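Give me C-alpha cells for this 244-residue protein.
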Amino acid sequence: MRETRSVIYLIEDDVKSSLAISGLLESANFRVHAFSNAYEVLPIARKIPPSLFLIDVSLPGKSGIELCREIRRSAELYCVPVIFHSGKASESDRLAGLEWGDEYISKPSSPRELLARVKAVLRRFERNTRALCLRFGNLEVNRDGMLVKLNGESVEMTTSEFRLLCYFLQHPRRVFTREELLEALWDQDAYISPRSVDACVKRLRKKIEPSAASPQYLQTIRGAGYRFVLQPQQANAPDNYAAG
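Here you go.
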C-alpha cells in the first residue's frame, strides 16, 4: 500500500525562499502547496486542510500572526499545527508566535534544522491527538476540535494555553516543574523562560477556575511547580480518561 504523504501549506512571500523551502520539503517526501500571501490560503485550506502550516510572519497586507489567529478560529482548521518561520528573532516576536503557533524558527535557519523541526511538530501532533476527549467535572476538552467548555460554555484559548491544559489533563495529580513543562511543550526554546510558563498558567486559571485567586484545578506546589487535580468531590478520573 502506498504511504500517504503529509501535506504542508507554505506561506512565504519571498520567491527564492519559497522555492528553496518547497524543494527541501519535497525531497523529504512531503507534498507542498506554496502561497505568496495570507489572503489566498484560507479558502483553499478550509476545503482541503493540510497536515501543517509553515508561515512567514512578515507577509504583505496581513501578517502571519493574523493568519494564524484566523486558522485557530476556523471550524475546519483550528487543530492543524502551525510553524512560524521568520526573520524577526526578538523575544517578544517569538512569544507572540508561540502563543498562537506550535513552533517558531528564526531565519536564517539551516535546511537540516528546518526539516527536523517540521518532522518533530508533526510527530508531536500525531502523538498528542491520540486522546481526543478529556472530561473532568464541569471541564470538557475536545482535542480533535481544539474546543474547551466550562459548564457547557465555550472558552477561547490560545494555542499555548490549550496545549498546557491538555498536558495537565493527561497527567492529573502529577507535579511538574517549570523546566519539565518547558521541555514537554516548548522543546526548551531558548527564548521561552520559566516565567513564561507562570504567565501561561496565570492566564489559564482565569479561564477555567471559579476563582483564579483560589484555584481548584491548577494548583501551585510551593518550591516544586504545578499540578492539576480533580475537583474535591471526585475521587477518580472518569471512564473516558486517557493517560498520556
